[in-house]
Amino acid sequence: MRTWIIIAITWGEEYSHDTYSQVELWGRFYLTERLQVFAFVPYGYNDMDGTEQVVSNSGLGDISVMANYMLVNTGDDDGKTFKHTLMVGGGVKLPTGDSDMKDRGELVNPNFQLGTGSTDFMVNSIYTIRYQKIGLNAETGYKINTRNSDDYLFGNQFHASAQFFYWQNIGDFSFLPNVGTYFESAESHEEGKIKNENTGGNALLLSTGLETYYKKFTVGFNYKHPLSQDFNSDDIASIESKSRMMVSLTYNF
Question: Does the pLDDT value for residue 1 go beyond 90?
Answer without folding.
Answer: no
